[in-house]
Design a protein that fits this description.
Blueprint (H helix, E strand, L loop, with lengths): L4 E2 L2 H9 L9 E4 L2 E6 L2 E6 L10 E3 L7 H12 L7 E3 L11 H8 L3 E3 L24 H4 L15 E3 L12 E5 L8 E5 L4 E5 L10 H6 L3 E2 L10 H13 L4 E4 L5 E2 L1 H12 L1 H4 L6 H4 L14
Parallel strand pairs: 5-6, 6-7, 7-8, 11-13
Antiparallel strand pairs: 1-12, 2-3, 3-4, 4-5, 9-10, 10-11, 13-14
């Protein structure tokens, strides 16, 4: 079973301090950066409060049924009727695209993703099968039941610029962090070392329903039941740790900041094979890669 890296009580207190609710039910973790916890997953809001219509960006789009929560948080934070200038995706797994089609249509906005993730967002490829044997928890055991079929954004889908910029997010750049999926990306702001990690690593034991419920702060590898290339996942965590982030929000779990967080992230990077890689997975010996099309089975 993969091992979690728990944080000290001091680090947990830091994490809890980030969890102070604003009136809009988001958690402000850095200037112009907030996130909203939606049971299983997080979405992030990039833009200053009161930014108004087209003055902000949504990162990822939650689980099915979360549209009202996201929309109400957005309007409370940015203003009544305020629409984003774009939605940007870390990746397209079902728990990150739950209301993407509805929101993109309602807000009439483009959706940006990495080119290697595009087949999952333009209707041409299903995700590889989930792996129920990893992690030893209920969330992993249910992996065969999770939706894998692509969604089709049609003309709304755009590719992230090759220069690393992110439309609507000045000062931020995207970093290709594959492993959990072939086109997974994370978002980085140099000015204050803020990181939106997606599922490159997470801060809760996502394989366990209990861990998901209690959300104890811990540093953890990517959710193992959908990770398709463990060598790439290791390299991605190592690359993100080398950035020395000051504040991190991942796709699952609480946001974290400071030296304790960085120490835990470095330990995850250094001991990745021991603490993150499962003992058994179909993807250990046969990773799913874009190059040989194994990452893109037919829908």
């Amino acid at each position: 079973m993969a091992e979690q890296i728990p944080l000290s009580p001091e680090a947990s207190a830091i994490s809890e301090a980030l969890d102070d609710y604003r009136d809009d039910l988001t958690h402000e973790i850095a200037p112009g950066l907030a996130y909203r916890r939606l049971a299983l997953v997080n979405v992030a809001f990039v833009g200053e409060p009161g930014g108004g219509d087209r003055g902000w960006v949504l990162v990822d789009a939650g689980i099915p049924g979360s549209k009202g929560f996201i929309r109400r948080a957005a309007e409370a934070r940015f203003g009544e009727g305020a629409r984003p200038s774009a939605i940007v995706m870390t990746h397209g797994h079902f728990d990150h695209v739950g209301v993407l089609l509805d929101l993109a249509e309602e807000w009439d906005v483009p959706v940006y993703a990495h080119a290697l993730e595009a087949p999952y967002l333009n209707g041409t490829a299903a995700y590889p099968p989930g792996e129920p044997s990893v992690g030893g928890g209920l969330m992993a055991l249910m992996a065969p039941l999770y939706p894998r079929s692509p969604i089709d954004l049609g003309a709304r889908l755009r590719l992230l610029p090759e220069d690393g910029g992110i439309p609507g997010m000045p000062g931020w750049r995207w970093i290709h962090t594959p492993g959990h999926s072939v086109g997974h990306v994370s978002f980085w702001r140099d000015a204050d070392r803020s990181l939106i990690a997606g599922d490159a690593f997470v801060t809760t034991g996502q394989e366990s329903a209990y861990a998901v419920a209690v959300q104890r702060a811990e540093m953890h590898g990517p959710p193992a039941y959908f990770t398709v290339d463990w060598a790439a996942a290791r390299a991605s965590v190592q690359a993100l740790a080398a950035l020395e982030p000051e504040v991190v929000v991942s796709g699952h779990g609480e946001a974290m900041r400071g030296a304790e967080m960085r120490q835990a992230l470095h330990r995850l990077a250094e001991e990745f094979d021991r603490v993150a890689v499962p003992e058994k997975s179909r993807y250990l010996d046969h990773p799913a890669r874009a190059g040989d099309r194994s990452a893109y089975p037919s829908p």
